[in-house]
Amino acid sequence: MPTHAEQRLIAYTPEQLFDLVADVGKYPQFLPWCVKAIVKSRTETELVADLTIGFGPFRETFTSRVTLERPSRIRVSYEKGPFRYLNNVWTFTPDPRGCLVDFFVDFEFRSRLLQNAIGVVFNEGVRLMVSAFIKRARDTYGTPHVTPRAQPDLTKA
């Protein structure tokens, strides 16, 4: 049952970071191990998407329901696929230096083989994923303008 919680100060606005995370259809362009994303339905406050993740010899597709609470929170709940459960929450809090991002993920695969395989690389995988979003923000919005009080490495992954 891998669980990960992380908080990062990132020098972009909550709205910008919210939009990046909410743009699920573009995940295969920049997220490690995300090989396919299909948004099946979308409203202003919710979307349902199929994501296919692949690592090593494993490839699994799952459906999740994403609740969009613009611009402060994105909640991901599991619908169907290889997991027993999946919970993921992104929280975006304004800060004078940018945005304080809280990221939480908790899941368990049905298959012990998959669970054991991901367990070995889970923490590194989550760090890579968060770094991929930060890089995507730089690629999309350019180099942030950080105030002198800000930490110099706000966007370094």
TrEMBL record:
GO molecular function ontology, one term from the record: ubiquinone binding
Record keywords: Ubiquinone
Source species, domain of life: Bacteria
Gene Ontology biological process terms from the UniProt entry: cellular respiration
Residues covered by the Coenzyme Q-binding protein COQ10 START domain: 10-133
A Pfam family assignment: Polyketide_cyc
Family: Belongs to the ribosome association toxin RatA family.
PANTHER family assigned: COENZYME Q-BINDING PROTEIN COQ10, MITOCHONDRIAL (PTHR12901:SF10), SPERM PROTEIN HOMOLOG (PTHR12901)
Designated name of the protein: Ubiquinone-binding protein
